[in-house]
Amino acid sequence: MSRLPFYLIVALLLVAGIAMSVHRHVQFEVPWTPGEQRQVWEIEAQVNFNGNGDPAKVEMALPSTQQGFRVLSEHTASPGYGLTYLEENGTRRALWSVREASGSQQLYYTAQVLVAPQARANVVPSPIPDASVAWEPPYDTAAQAVIDLAWSRSADPATFARQLIRDFSDDHQGENARLLLTQFDRVPLLLRLLDQAQVPAREVSGLMLEDGRRRQTLTSWIQVYDGDDSVLFDPTSGEQGRPDNLLLWENAGQSVLEVQGGSNSHVGFSMISRNQPAAAAVRSQQAKDPDTLLNFSIHSLPLEEQSLFQTILLIPIGALVVVLLRVLVGIKTSGTFMPVLIALAFIQTTLLTGLIGFLLVVAVGLVIRNYLSYLNLLLVARVTTVIITVIAIISLFSVLSFRFGLNAGLQITFFPMIILSWTIERMSILWEEEGPKEVLIQGGGSMLTAVLAYLAMNNPWIRHITFNFLGVQLILMAFILMLGNYTGYRLLELRRFKPVTEDD
Amino acid sequence: MWTSPGQLRAKGIVGMNRRNIRYIGRYNDRRLYPLVDDKLQTKLLAQRHGITSPALIGKVSTQFGVKRIHEMLASHGGFVIKPAKGSGGKGILVIERRDGAHFVKPSGAHLSLGDVERHVSNILSGLYSLGGSPDVALIEALIDFDESFAEYSYEGVPDIRVIVFQGYPVMAMMRLSTAASDGKANLHQGAVGVGIDIASGTAIRGVQFDRARHDHPDTGHELASLQIPKWQTLLQLAANCFEMTSLGYLGTDMVLDRQHGPMLLELNARPGLAIQMANGEGLRSRLDLIERQPQGVAPDERVAFAQHHFARRSELERVAQTAKA
């Protein structure tokens, strides 16, 4: 009998489980530990303009997920306006429209942006340099001279752009550069020169993120392409590279704000930074991501179902504890998975209240069940009687503890009553047949298992892992399959069989 | 208090996990379990194969039938009521004799007809059966047990458990009930387990509560002289159970009746591991040896093979001799 298929299945489950978990960690930045904090920027853009009583259209560039940042959610507040989101070539824009705008108008857009070092941008195609750049004399010779100088000192588009911007920076300005700057603005001038040198480049607008700043404006940056790679340059200093706190708001060389039917338009930004638990950040980003197969996640369910699943996904952990204790240790329990259900009740009631409540109900139930055995009843009728008795005991304890001001007593109602009744029935039979000692052994084993299962299931880290990484369930399954193949001794057998090894 | 896995392995002790996976899982076809889990089926099967077992007085399968058991029992002084699907000796009620309207247990406790009826009713509703499914109560004739064991047993009937692996009797023990076990022959309840030499049918070693014992705790009779009569027949009977059930790893429970000799009491598809304690030896080496044997060997050859290979000297005699010296 070949065990190969078995090991294949185990290996497959392990690989799939680990791959799924790592994928979730890398792709969705779900952290391995629950305590991790993530920085989230709340950015508000306020568009102001004066309507002149005609139909108005306001188009504004929107930030998208990019290197270092992930857009979690966005909202707009623009009463009376119709709103459309436009998406094209990896750029996003919002279009507000209204039939009649008069007087001062305010439109608000807020975005929550997660600081996410692993986030990747959508690919925006590189611009094609405009070949037909024309200069008037004497600027043509000045431009050509600047280009020639930078060209001779550079090797590729990036170094060329750096040399060029350096020539226009305040310390190194030459004659030609100064002449050109008298006629043109710095950024359009640089782009024109880059175009003329056939270097693909565009202007992009970014927001420097600083906590608590208000009425900020966007800054212009020059993005230079070398093949598919792009480099960002500060147009004034010529510094290369993107600062960590720069959020690119507009990344396709288009305008940031366009207003038709209004005047004096202006967009201002205010922002605050806050830290929130990683799990919450994951939750809000999950709500936004499209439903793909790999994104299959409990987090796409409504919140109420999510909390239900949080408990359901913990059951395999409790079951694993039972398997470990039975297969590796050899503890006897009353009812195989009864301790898991008791442990689930403990999660609701807290451990001490749960333990006291459980012992009280079972003890009183045993006394009553003992009397019932004299009445000579059919089994199902007797167990049903015990169920009603258990409910009565639970109600009584709840009322009593409430009267005495112990709110903890109310939580006793979380116990699975039918399971408790069967436990009482089984314990009672065990008592009659095997004596109180066996009841203590099995009852104690059940309690120990329930407490261990509770400790495992209530561990914040385990809760986080099982809830956020569904792949863990596959790993658990592989592990339990392997345990099911274990032919070694149980821990308690080392004690049980000790006498056999003693007498030689 | 604790021993090491290495020491247990050296002794060839088979643990619960190994028993479940390597022997029960591999050699016992699930489909065949009802043959042994249902004692009624076992009994009928045994009758077909000419294997002696205690006579069936009757069975009760419905709750209204419970009220008629006194008619069924009218002509029987002693009898045994057991659930057809019980396990671990649960739910077995032994009535030794009657005292007027009362039924007397081996312990001397008196039960009324109502108590007996309640017991039968409990059996039918599945109180003692595996998984709590509805069950049938069997009423069997009381075994007229061999007087030669009177000194070795307290109240109950001593029974002999033989583990039959692939048709070979591999290990045997006798279970002697004690006051501690309430007349029941279950080792974990305090019965004395006596390892029996497969070759000769004599006692090798005794244990109670997993600790070595040389005498019966209640009668005080020493165990060294214990010798099972008609041992050969008994082994033959046990070996035949393999053909009867096709179960590869089987526990056969037998009793010795004064008139009928060895009788099959019940079969067990998940025999316990305490037999290793009673024998002071692990099952592993014997099972490994049998696994290397070819299939399709006749029962008497299998018995001869086992008797040849599994012969042991009694530890009890050795103790007695050293005591004398």
Task: Describe this entry's structure for a reader.
The complex is a heterodimer of chains A (504) and B (325). Chain A is of the alpha+beta class and 504 residues long. Chain A has 3 domains: 36-128 and 204-300, Immunoglobulin-like (Sandwich); 130-199, no CATH class; 309-495, no CATH class. Chain A contains 17 helices and 12 strands. The model of chain A has no long low-confidence stretch (mean pLDDT 83). By secondary structure, chain B is of the alpha+beta class. Chain B has 2 domains: 13-36 and 146-320, ATP-grasp fold, B domain (D-amino Acid Aminotransferase, Chain A, domain 1, 2-Layer Sandwich), CATH 3.30.470; 55-141, ATP-grasp fold, A domain (Dna Ligase, domain 1, 2-Layer Sandwich), CATH 3.30.1490. Chain B is 32% helix and 22% strand. Chain B has helices spanning 5-11, 16-27, 33-37, 39-48, 63-66, 69-73, 113-124, 231-245, 274-279, 284-291, 299-309, 315-324, and strands at 56-60, 79-83, 93-95, 97-99, 102-104, 110-111, 137-141, 159-165, 168-176, 192-196, 203-208, 211-213, 249-257, 261-268. Chain B has a 7-stranded antiparallel β-sheet with strand order 12-11-10-9-8-13-14. In chain B, strands 1-7-2-3 form a 4-stranded antiparallel β-sheet, sandwiched between helices. In chain B, a hairpin with a 5-residue loop joins β5 and β6 (110-111). In chain B, α8 crosses α11 (299-309). The longest helix of chain B has 15 residues, at 231-245. Chain B is globular. The A-B interface holds A 1, 327, 330, 376, 378-380, 429, 433-434, 485-490, 493-501, 503 and B 1-5, 7-8, 10-11, 13, 15-18, 21-22, 26, 63, 90, 114, 117-118, 121-122, 125-127, 132, 189, 207, 210-212, 276-277, 280-282, 315.
